[in-house]
Structure formats: C-alpha cells, structure tokens
Amino acid sequence: MRKIHVITQKEAVREERLVGCTAAVIDVFLATSTIIFLLDRNYEPVHAVLGSEQALELSKLQEAEHLLLGESKGEGLEGFDYPDPCALEYSAERQAAIICSTNGTIAIEKAKEAKKLYISSLVNGHRVAERIHQEQDGSSIVLICSGNDDRFSMEDFIGAGQLADHLANWGSYELSDAAKLARKAYRSSLAERFNELLDSETADLLKRFNFPEAAEFIIRQHEQLDVVPVYKDGMIVKELEQVRNGE
C-alpha cells in the first residue's frame, strides 16, 4: 500500500529521502498557481529558479522572446513581471517563462531529486492526484507545502489535503498523521468555500503589495484547470494526458 506523507514547509525537506518517491510541490499563493496558469496560457517550458540572480543569468542565455517573472518576500523585482496569475495573457506562440519566488520555486529546487515531481495547487490538484493514482508503482507519495518564508502556510496545507483527499477517495492509501489532518482541513475549507484562506498571512501580504485579487482569483479557479505540470530535465512542462478515472 502506498503511503502519503505531508511536509508542512520546504525547510523540512530532506532531499535524499525523496529519491524513489513521487512528490508534488504546492504553493497556492502564489508560485505553483502561476506556473500552472503559465502552462495553460501556452508558456512552455517554465524554468523555476532559486532567485533573481539565477533568473537573470538564465534570461541572458535565451535566444527567443520569453517571460521573466519574480518576487522576493512579496515585493516585485526590478525588470521582472510580478507572478500574478490574474495578469497572465495567452501567448499566441509557445513561449518560455522564467520564474523565481520566495517559497515555491525554492521548494521545487529542493524536491528535484524525487523519482517524479509534480506541481500542484487548488486549481489543478484533482488532475495531479489523478495522475499520481494512475501510476500505482508502489512509490511513497510526498506532498510538499512550500510554506511562508520559514513558516507554516495554511493554504498550502489545504492544497496538500486536496491531493490526499482525492487519492484516499479513489484507492487504498496509508495516510501519515499530517496527511490525515491536511485532508480534514481541506474538506472543512471546501465546505466553507475556502473563505478563511482570504484571511491567510499570504493573502494579506498580496493585498499589502497591491495584488488584492490574486488570492480570490485562485480560489475561484478551484479545480478548473486540467494542466498537469511535471519537472523534467530542469524544466517544468505539461505531461501528456492519460485516460482519466472512470472515463
């Protein structure tokens, strides 16, 4: 029986323990949601890097036009677009994107040793869970909450619970204590239409930096996107669609 673990913030990740595991990184407000919307709007591949220096270095190597997004502790970076999914427009031609952030992209970097690494949020968690369930390869499943700059993040924990809930509904999985609590938190938050997430620390931070609609926008898009992002060869791309459960 596959076991589901939840790591409540990126600082608790032990990279060597992810080898052989299936992992999903969650940063609901804001990085993983933005990555998912980038892929949905024809920006591919997406390069998630640790910080602005790495982003600028990679940008210089790009021969084609690309999108450069970033923030640090919630503040925008000079020369970067802010990673606000509300502002992303569809790209007529497939175009690469580079993104750096305080939490989500660092969590992705820490999780890259996993056997398979997915990018998840409330907007696509149902599809990520579906893909993980289809694998049935016996690997442990590690759900990584990015957290909020070395602190617990309510919305990421609930995003992990979304994955745990779908998986537990579809099959026999062993849930860790943290996974059980995350699942319960997700179901409770879903019943309240995720309203408490609008009072989370990260939602308040986005409001202070003049992005008041970002959190509400993501909540409204709960399970509306079918994109399944996967980390491959240092890049994030859309995984090819497989047959869905029950279809």
Automatic annotation (TrEMBL):
GO terms, molecular function: 2-phosphosulfolactate phosphatase activity; magnesium ion binding; sulfopyruvate decarboxylase activity
List, separated by semicolons, the cofactors it needs: Mg(2+)
Keyword Ligase: yes or no?
A: no
Span-the-membrane segments of this chain are 21-39
The record's InterPro entries line, in alphabetical order, gives:
ComB-like, ComB-like_sf
* Family as reported in the entry's similarity comment: Belongs to the ComB family.
**Cross-referenced PANTHER family, in alphabetical order?**
2-PHOSPHOSULFOLACTATE PHOSPHATASE-RELATED
Q: Any idea what this protein is called?
A: Probable 2-phosphosulfolactate phosphatase
UniProt lineage: Bacteria, Bacillati, Bacillota, Bacilli, Bacillales
